[in-house]
Amino acid sequence: MKIAYHDIYAHPLPADHRFPMLKYELIPAQLLREGVITPDQLFTPVPADEGTILLTHTLEYWQKLKDQTLSAKEQRRIGFPQSPALTLREIVIAQGSIDIALHALEHGIGFNVAGGTHHAFADHGEGFCLLNDFGVAANYLLQQKRVKQVLVIDLDVHQGNGTAALFADNAHVYTFSMHGAHNYPFHKETSDWDIPLPDGMNTGAYLQLLEEALPQLINRVKPDIVFYLSGVDILETDKFGKLKVTAAGCQQRDELVFHALKKHQIPCAVAMGGGYSTHIRDIVNAHCNTFKAGISIYG
């Protein structure tokens, strides 16, 4: 089992980028400390090459990221000021999702400590997302004829609007998003299947909906691989999530997904997505539980 990991200290980010990235250092550290993983399971991907990025993103947008020529408006839409280190981080993350998907095809499951940048569109970024790593990885696998059918299961509390738009006319990628109805993005795109959730939904109701949806998804799509976005902003402790799912419920969510996929021998590439609880320990613990569930179930 391999875990893509980008050391944010290797290419230092500006100070105003650092705190949102902190969990990506703490997650592997905790997994190592608890003995869930070993150091040899962590790897740092090389940056994705331009040709791979352009399978998903427009040349004009990619040129702006390379040349650091995003307008002030474009930067505000993303939520970060542009920097070469941030662009580098995004292309490393995108390659990481390719690498873990290839690993999953051979070994069942792979994890990206970061990733899940589902608000990035072909021609612009938004919501702290510059490049759409699942989009890049899915298009790469299809272009290389490694798979014929992809399923994206997006359980971040925010709709995967960028991913939905990228694959709106692509019959080879089925997008599923179960998200807060009244949460960001306030203009939703149309996934192949959207389940909007009311504010305050509790653990039981959430898990029941997911448990009913998973077999329908698998039977409908018959995917060669699943990209699973396991955002932990569904937690009741999340500052922006608006749902009432407990930490135990969040772990049960992951277990439901992994059990359903393993039952049908479907490879799974996992990215962490969002998490904005007040205490960072709640975020890190929930993300680490995703790793534990996947490792335990896939073996």
From TrEMBL:
GO BP: any one term: epigenetic regulation of gene expression
Pfam families documented for this protein: Hist_deacetyl (PF00850)
Single GO MF descriptor: hydrolase activity
Domain Histone deacetylase: 21-288
Domain of life: Bacteria
Keyword presence, Heme: no
Keywords tagged on the record: Hydrolase
Gene3D superfamilies in the cross-refs: Histone deacetylase domain (3.40.800.20)
Family named by the database record: Belongs to the histone deacetylase family.
PANTHER family: HISTONE DEACETYLASE 12, HISTONE DEACETYLASE HDAC1-RELATED
Protein name: Acetoin utilization deacetylase AcuC-like enzyme
Organism: Chitinophaga niastensis
